Amino acid sequence: MSRQIDKTFKSALRDAIYQIGTQKGLADAAGIPRANIGKYLSGQIQVMRERTYQKLLPFLDLNKFSLEDKGPLELIYKSRHTKPLVEIFEQLDNDNQRQVVGFAENVLKEQDRERGAEFTPEESKHFAAIGVTCKYGMEFSITLSSLCWIYNVFLFGKLSSRILSNSNLKEMLKISLPANNCRELRLKLFTIDVYDDKPYDILVMYLNGSPPKFPTSYFCNNKICKIFTLSANVNTVFGLPDESVFDLHFSEQEYEDLKKGKTLKIPCPV
Predict the structure, then answer these.
(1) Is 239 helix (H, G, I), strand (E, B) or coil?
(2) What pLDDT shows up at residue 214?
(3) What's the pTM?
(4) Mean pLDDT in order along the chain per 10 residues (270 residues)
(5) What pLDDT does residue 99 have?
(6) What does the CA dihedral 136, 138, 141, 147 come to, rounded to 10 degrees?
(7) Which helix (H) or strand (E) holds 155?
(8) Run of H or E residues at 256
(9) CB count, 10 Å around CB of 265?
(10) Nearest Cα to 220, choosing from 188, 185, 257?
(11) Domains along the chain?
């Protein structure tokens, strides 16, 4: 028996990650591979085995997200996690309620600081212009143009870390790239024979030049998809926070050219 991964499940999964703190923490607690959680969120895996579903179920509040028309206040009042807290809060006098609200505000600010904080509307606008969008402060969608921008920022910028945390991404926006010297990002797909009837794809990318910079390879499960979830490995130019998901979106033409064995040549959007 298998389970379809729908919008309700994804929302509950994001909530469980937020409650525990990281994807790794949830995966370890449930006893499942961490990489699978990112694939559930991105849609790379759309059907889940019943055994895996039962492992995750104790950490998921599916009722909290079962109705799309629920507003945030209704969710707070009906969630089995927050309803008892609301009832206690309503029994407090005004002074104690203000103290609780102040404490909660400080906790949220500390969580934002640890995650690098959310992006401002202006920052989100700048990211959208180069092909980066973000949901929930941790679920990113990027294009090949924005990936080229990331590679060039690491090449020309001076950053204390190459981890794509929210705080680092904010710093990257401040870096000016030399328009005439930015390098082209190139990608090519290679197929290797793992089994006689089951070839696997390897996606290779690098900044063009002499010599090429930041060669990176990604091992794809079976075949490359139009939406490819990036992962951190020893061959990657950047690191990824445990709680974040980075999905690389190929256009229809890019996807078809990759499958035909062509080399994609992506200019930097500066």
Answers:
(1) strand
(2) 92
(3) 0.60
(4) 80 84 83 83 80 86 64 51 70 80 72 61 90 82 94 90 86 90 94 74 91 87 77 73 82 93 92
(5) 84
(6) 150
(7) helix 144-156
(8) helix 252-259
(9) 12
(10) 188
(11) 2-60 (1.10.260), 121-266 (no CATH)
Residues present in the chain in total:
270
Taking each helix axis from N to C terminus, what angle separates 34-42 and 7-20, rounded to the nearest 10 degrees? 140
Beta strands 213-219 and 139-142 are: unpaired
Q: What six digits make up the tokens of 162?
A: 């190459």
Token pair of 103, please?
A: 């404490």
DSSP-derived pairing of the beta strands 213-219 and 132-135: unpaired
Asked if residues 269 and 130 have their Cβ atoms less than 8 Å apart, the reply is yes
3-state secondary structure (DSSP) of residue 37: helix
Q: How would DSSP label each residue in 201-269?
A: EEEEEEE-SSS-EEEEEEE-SSS--SEEE----TT-SSB--TT-EEEEEPPHHHHHHHHTTPPEEE---
Instruction: Tell me the CA end-to-end span of the chain in Å, nearest whole number.
Output: 50
Supply the Cα-derived Rg of the chain in whole angstroms: 21
Six token digits for residue 105: 């505000």
- Report the alpha-carbon distance of residue 227 to residue 40 in Å, rounded: 12
**pLDDT value of position 111:** 56
Nearest to 115 by CA among 50, 22, 24: 22
Residue of 140, 98, 132 lying closest to 115 (CA atoms): 140
Look at residues 223, 163, 164 and name the one whose alpha carbon lies nearest to residue 190. Answer: 223
Task: Give pairs for 231-235: CB < 8 Å, separation 24+.
Answer: 231/35, 231/38
Tokens describing residue 171: 């710093």
CA distances from 185 to 15, 68, 212, 213 (A): 35, 40, 10, 9
Residue among 153, 166, 163, 161 nearest 119 (CA): 166
pLDDT at position 234: 58
